[in-house]
Design goal:
By secondary structure, the protein is α+β, with helices and mostly antiparallel strands. About 15% of the residues lie in helices and about 35% in strands. The chain contains five helices and 17 strands. The strands form four sheets. The chain has a five-stranded antiparallel beta sheet with strand order 1-6-3-2-9. Strands 5-4-7-8 form a four-stranded antiparallel beta sheet, with no helix packed on it. Belongs to the synaptotagmin family. It is a single-pass membrane protein.
Length: about 425
């Protein structure tokens, strides 16, 4: 009787020890994960509510308390726009010393004032904070002003961009004389971070108040980055209209002292000229016996810059048309960061009719962009009704079947 009793006691002690050891290991793993900052992760903050991932903090932290917000709202004039920026840091704590930041004045209700003209090339904080009042004649030629703020959290190694509002946007809808604006933001030159705001309907003065927090960006690299804001108007039935853009080089901007308020005039997008679309080398061969068309996309050269970041990421989309109706489509692989791409990709199309009289082929050179729609760099059409080198190339293909004929072609507007 004594042996089973001793065995039972030792088994109970062993079970208790195993459970305790397992619980201790789980606690250690959980604490190590909570202290680890995820690299290259951003958090979207909407309407001024600070939301942090649960693996960084055990609880979600929000902005100022309801009582303090009520006091601030009661103290504000009804017709003024107040932006509470320096109440808290990114951890949700009140700093010991706070600097007072002036809110943006109401441009519509304020009387015209004369401000010193600022140099567009200078990036000093004083010049960035200044707001110029525009006359009614100047507003017709302007595309509006974008207001935003920048901040860097050294504890979390996080770069914070708050897109506040835009003022005086032009009307892109001629019927309603309004726009449906939203903003796309890209951190250049690597284009790893691409974000966009929500669409605000029927307004020329959208108040976004959306914050984007980017983790894993060292403070030493901030000076090498550039912010690119693209202001667009949503269109349900066609491609969204581009209102303009804002480019902010961060070199010379000091973020160590806290949050920095900035405003920039929206400028017209740098549209490429049709003469600088580049060239495309293609080779075609018509097999009359099998009634097939072999298309080889060989090279592209002298492609223009797709955006302010520099080089484009081109690929070619090939569309086959029969009597102006697309019957087949193919596309090449994407070539990263190059104006002179080498594709060397072959496609074979079955022709649904005898001969090439009603057949045409379209080449679209596009820039690959994960964060938005791929932009058309240039277009090339080959067919019996095509003009220039496209028509000459097609004529040679029809006259000399079973022969592979290659030619360079200038790309036209997309």
């Amino acid at each position: 009787d004594e042996i089973p009793t001793v065995v039972g006691i030792f088994s109970a002690f062993g079970l208790v020890f195993s459970v305790s050891l397992f619980a201790w290991i789980c606690c250690q793993r959980k604490s190590s994960k909570s202290n680890k900052t995820p690299p290259y992760k951003f958090v979207h903050v909407l309407k001024g509510v600070d939301i942090y991932p649960e693996n960084l903090n055990s609880k979600k932290k929000f902005g100022a308390d309801d009582k303090s917000e009520a006091k601030n709202k009661s103290a504000m004039p009804k017709n003024s726009l107040h932006l509470d920026l320096e109440k808290r840091d990114l951890n949700g704590n009140f700093p010991k010393t706070t600097t007072k930041m002036q809110g943006f004045p109401d441009l519509e209700n304020s009387s015209p004032k004369h401000f010193p003209e600022r140099n567009k090339d200078s990036i000093t904080p004083d010049s960035l904070k200044s707001i110029t009042s525009l006359s009614s004649e100047d507003k017709q030629d302007k595309l509006g002003t974008l207001f935003f703020s920048l901040e860097y959290n050294f504890e979390k190694k996080a770069f914070v961009v708050n897109i506040k509002e835009a003022r005086g946007l032009p009307a892109m809808d001629e019927q309603s004389m309004t726009s449906d604006p939203y903003i796309k933001m890209t951190i250049l030159p690597e284009k790893k971070h691409k974000v966009k705001t929500r669409v605000l309907r029927k307004t020329l003065d959208p108040a976004f108040d959306e914050t984007f927090t980017f983790y894993g960006i060292p403070y030493s690299q901030i000076q090498d980055l550039t912010l690119h804001f693209m202001v667009l108007s949503f269109d349900r039935f066609s491609r969204d209209d581009v209102i303009g853009e804002v480019l902010i080089p961060l070199s010379g901007i000091e973020l160590s002292e806290g949050r920095l308020l900035m405003d920039r005039e929206i400028i017209k997008r740098n549209v490429r000229k049709s003469s600088g679309r580049g060239e495309l080398l293609v080779s075609l061969c018509y097999q009359s016996t099998t009634n097939t068309l072999t298309v080889v996309v060989l090279k592209a050269r002298h492609l223009p810059k797709s955006d302010v970041s520099g080089l484009s990421d081109p690929y070619v989309k090939v569309n086959l048309y029969h009597a102006k109706k697309r019957i087949s489509k193919k596309k090449t692989h994407v070539k990263k960061c190059t104006p002179n791409a080498v594709f060397n990709e072959l496609f074979v199309f079955d022709i649904p009719c005898e001969g090439l009289d009603d057949i045409s082929i379209e080449f679209l050179v596009l820039d690959s962009d994960r964060g938005s729609r791929n932009e058309v760099i240039g277009r090339l059409t080959l067919g019996s009704s095509a003009e220039g080198t496209g028509g000459e190339h097609w004529k040679e293909i029809c006259e000399y079947p079973r022969r592979q004929i290659a030619k360079w072609h200038m790309l036209c507007d997309g």
